[in-house]
Design brief:
The chain is an alpha+beta fold. The protein folds into two domains: 14-148, Rossmann fold, CATH 3.40.50; 181-419, Phosphatase 2c, domain 1 (4-Layer Sandwich). It has eleven helices and 18 strands.
Length: 426
């Protein structure tokens, strides 16, 4: 083994020197040669220019990392050169050091204001020059790191933007699919009619409304509001839509078939209990949902209704009176042992049954005040002359006027049943 002394590590700036190009600008050939010799010895790639004009051409065609420029030069001085140097577009940063015999604070400040990063007093001390270059290396390193981070951020933002565009297209498609869950938004049953309103607050929502025929003389009306918002809530509504299908009575949990192939409906409270049991045994989700479901007789106007955490349905009497019905109740999927109460009611010719989500009653104006049940009742009275889809559209316009926005903060949905007399016997 050979013994010997351990060589000291090179100065920090020399670790970068071989990567850096320095432009020396001075009208004195001797001064340029002295500086070039030092810089070359330290590992820098050096170019020389005897004046600012020549230096500017080099800075445009082959931008240097560091410029050492004399202050006093014929034709264009160092401050003017520095100002033009800073105006040249470039990707990386250029570190500019002024070489000057000027020592007054005011003159030095003028040089720094012109865009210079540092200055060196003549005659040049090699140790001081090396220290100033080391400081420049740190600035150039920090700038290069920031540029790289900015590039990564820009690249990531581009990827996020592309992903967002893709998600937006998917959500637009999901919105169409969710809207298609409502097969009909209006149907006439002889003298009576049912109309539906569904306005998600975003691309997709957690509200669902619908109706299905139980038999020739009865119809089931339902409104559901799944907790939360967004895609997971929308997927839950899609699953629930299958449980209350208007086109597949054999899959509809509200329906039951007798031995003769005839369909009937289970009582509303029993349906709520069934859905609650299914929520805990078949639906692997943290979501719960509220429900209002009515079994309505088209010939008599009588109805049975269950309210499971949903806002109180309203009966709009032909006289103008408005009555709240329902027992409140627990949401479905929240408490496994929950019990649900059933209420009954009677519609007379000219009366309407209105079932809505809390997106209506909890809508807020610009001051943070909620519309509430009284405010909703006032809007319904204001539009009492309108009927069917026209009433729901007018209600939506009034709600937008109340909130001051056409895009609501929560999903808005409603079922409107208008009873104009017994359905003709078939």
């Amino acid at each position: 083994m050979h013994s010997g002394t351990v060589q000291p590590a090179p100065p920090a700036h020399l670790a970068f020197a071989s990567q850096r190009r320095v432009l020396v600008v001075d009208d004195s050939r001797m001064q340029r040669r002295i500086l070039s010799t030092l810089l070359t010895r330290w590992g820098y790639a050096v170019q020389e220019a005897e004046g600012a004009r020549e230096a500017l051409d080099i800075c445009v065609t082959d931008p240097p990392d560091v410029v050492l420029s004399d202050w006093m030069m014929p034709g264009m001085n160092g401050i003017e050169f520095c100002q033009l140097f800073r105006a040249i577009p470039r990707e990386s940063y250029g570190y500019f050091i002024l070489l000057t015999s000027k020592t007054s604070t005011k003159e030095i400040a003028a040089g720094l204001d012109a865009g210079a990063d540092d200055y060196l007093a003549k005659p040049i001390s090699p140790d001081e020059l090396r220290a100033r270059l080391a400081a420049g290396e740190r600035i150039l390193g920090i700038h290069a790191e920031l540029v790289e981070k900015n590039r990564l951020v820009t690249e990531t933002l581009g990827q996020i933007s592309a992903l967002y565009d893709s998600l937006d297209r998917d959500l637009q498609g999901a919105r169409k699919l969710q809207q298609s869950l409502i097969k009909e938004r209006h149907r006439s049953f002889g003298a009576s009619q049912v109309s539906l309103l569904l306005r998600p607050s975003g691309h997709v929502g957690g509200d669902l409304v619908g109706f299905f025929s139980i038999n020739a003389d009865r119809v089931g009306l339902f409104a559901i509001d799944v907790s939360g918002h967004g895609v997971s809530s929308a997927l839950m509504t899609a699953r629930l839509a299958g449980f209350l299908s208007p086109t597949s009575p054999d899959q509809n949990l509200a329906m039951t078939e007798d031995d003769f192939g005839l369909y009937d409906a289970i009582p509303p409270a029993e349906l709520a209990a069934t859905l609650n049991r299914v929520a805990f045994t078949e639906l692997d989700t943290e979501h719960y949902f509220t429900l209002a479901y009515a079994d309505l007789d088209l010939t008599t106007g009588a109805f049975a209704l269950v309210q499971a955490g949903h806002p109180h349905p309203m009966v709009l009497r032909a006289s103008g009176a408005i009555e709240q019905i329902g027992e409140g109740g627990m949401p479905i999927g929240l408490v496994e042992e929950a019990r649900f109460e059933q209420v009954t009611g009677q519609l007379r010719p000219g009366d309407r049954l209105f079932i809505m989500s809390d997106g209506l009653t909890e809508a807020m104006d610009s001051t943070g005040d909620m519309l509430g049940e009284d405010g909703l009742a006032a809007l319904l009275r204001r539009n009492a002359e309108a009927r069917g889809p026209g009433l729901l559209e007018a209600l939506t316009w009034d709600l937008a006027e109340f909130t001051g926005a056409s895009d609501f903060a929560d999903d808005v949905s409603a079922v409107l049943f208008e009873f104009d007399g017994p359905k003709a016997m078939s």
